[in-house]
Amino acid sequence: MAQPQTITTRLVPVRVQERALDIECQFISPEKTDADLLIFLHEGLGSVSLWKDWPAQVCAAAGCRGLVFSRYGYGASTPRPYDEKWPVSYMHTQAQEALPALLKALGMEHEKPILFGHSDGGSIALLYAAMYPDNVKAIAVAAPHIFIEDLTIASIEGARQAYLTTDLPQKFKRYHQDPDATFWAWNDIWLNPQFRAWNIESFVAKIRCPILAIQGRDDEYGTLDQIQGIKRIATQTKLCIIDDCRHSPHKDQPQATTNAVTDFIKSL
């Protein structure tokens, strides 16, 4: 019989750009010190709790340790002040400064993890692998963005309307300390006209590690040109296109996504 997983959650003090922050971290089977470390990077409106139990399922299937965390301004991490606006380069900052600072605070700066990133988290994983090619074993990205599409902007405009006219703010209170600050920081920057020029294809070209790129065929936030673009630039990429699946493969098709990630990790 398989041993039950050890799962703990706590706030970790982290210093990023001379700012003291508390980052919500969940640790899955940390006692498996000889196992690969799988780090989960959430979407633009995600958090530790929004992943639910899927990271634990993947870690169990793949035999990995896990680290799940809420970025600054998300979940139970330090909230972002209302007057603090995101720059167009916010994902670059997450990859270049915030993730390394968290790993250092955890004493994991010498680890060589596997990253799993969803949506914004997928883009951050791509940027991290490009910026620190010797510090990552492999990356798996689900519904990542490498450039801006009209479809993406239209869906984000739809999300804004839903937030203004439905009970979405109330639902978000379950997952974020300050749902309004979390939502508007993300929504405002994506709908900023300057963000239209955002593009990380030049960074993808610098990635040396193995890549698994996953996307739902019915993704409402991006076309398959996103992951096919990753494959075109970084030829070591394995593609996984999932039918009957929208923007969140781990929610829409959890078993198919788990199988794809597990097979990828076991092939490394």
From TrEMBL:
Pfam families: Abhydrolase_6 (PF12697). Signal peptide: none annotated. SUPFAM superfamilies: alpha/beta-Hydrolases. GO terms for cellular component: membrane. Gene3D superfamilies: alpha/beta hydrolase (3.40.50.1820). Residues 38-257 form the AB hydrolase-1 domain. This is Pimeloyl-ACP methyl ester carboxylesterase. It comes from Eoetvoesiella caeni. The lineage of its organism: Bacteria, Pseudomonadati, Pseudomonadota, Betaproteobacteria, Burkholderiales.
